[in-house]
Amino acid sequence: MLSAKKVQSYRAAREEEVGLVVDKIVRAAAKHTAVDMSELLSKFTIDVMCRAVAGRSFRVEGRDRVFRELIDQGMALMAGFNLENLYPGLAKAAGGVLVRPARRKAERIRERWDELIDRLIDEHANEVAADGVPAVCHGAGDTSGGDLQEFDFIHVLLSVQEEYGLTRDSIKGILVNMFAAGTETVYLVLEFAMAELMLDQDIMAKLQHELRSSTLGQEAINENKLTRMAYLKAVVKETLRLHPPTPLLLPHLSLGDCDVDGFRIPAGTTAVVNVWAIGRDPRVWENADEFVPERFISNGEIGGVDLGGNDFRFLPSGSGRRICPGINFAVATIEIMLANLVCHFDWELPHGVDKIDMTEVFGLTVSRREKLLLVPKIGDIDGRS
Q: How far apart are the C-alpha atoms of 272 and 275, rounded to whole Å?
């Protein structure tokens, strides 16, 4: 579902959703009103994910707001203080009385997710029952063949349910992970990127020059052009270095006893990787706390440090078999949205606001404390700026 070919297949949906966002900003620019970029980018990422997972956006139905609410509640619950994590014995002490409040919250959120995802699965199952299983979904596990890319994630999962022995709960778990992991992280990277660009107008100007010189008056930047945008890719990487959306990744587990720098780590130990600290380590990054996209560019081309987890200085998506499987999907969504935001518009702070507060709020993900409010103006995209 997240192969390079599958991700590419959703290009039209991404570009369409970007176009809708650009239209909203154009209307705001005509009225000289500020745009809540935090809200706008959050809705955009949910709409893109809904298109990929379920085949359509849920803006009109209002289900997009339900998705946002459930994602926020789930993130807060997983990142919050939980006695059971520190003292597992409490789960049994006094019949588990001390951990019941957290469990009740989790159960309520699960019930709401169940209702929402069950409805989506039933809708797709009914479509298959009425029209038959699409031929392209047969053998969907082979991502190299046919026109599999025409079908959303739910169709694909249903088509391989028997082949892989997927239970309904398994399918729901995969889909919830897709919604939660695929929306929160993408919109946070976009918001941090825009904030950093606003803080350094020279970097903003360099990126606008690259984008506008390549666009030459086109109404929108499509993904074909992004492959040549070295500075855009460097800006995205530098944002991920300074502001990894999941700063501690997800917990890992040591499978066997091992020694690390003289410390004995027994099997079953939870390991937490602090990629936020790795990305700001002054021993490996020059001017580590500064936003410098040029560090990822060599001779005008994108540098050798990539997102594949092969360089342990830069691990925003993890590494190895546990690397984030959605990294290609995320980067494609981030690049196309950021490119159009910067190319089509010049941005200013609202009247009376003279700085951007970069104070971070820590949770399972890290976000800015304040919403990002910006005033757009239609930019010069004829290639001369």
A: 9
Q: What is the pTM of this model?
A: 0.87
Q: Residue 201: CA atoms inside 13 Å, Cβ hemisphere, count? A: 6
- Write the pLDDT tens digit of every residue in 82-104: 666 666 666 666 556 666 777 78
- Contact of 42 with 68, CB cutoff 8 Å: yes
- Residue 210 near residue 231 (C-beta atoms within 8 A): yes
Q: How many domains does the chain have?
A: 1
d(CA 47, CA 90): 41
Domain that holds residue 354: 4-378
CATH number at residue 276: 1.10.630.10
Domain membership flag for residue 252: yes
pLDDT lower than 70: segments of the chain: 60-61, 79-99, 132-150, 216-219, 300-301, 303, 381-385
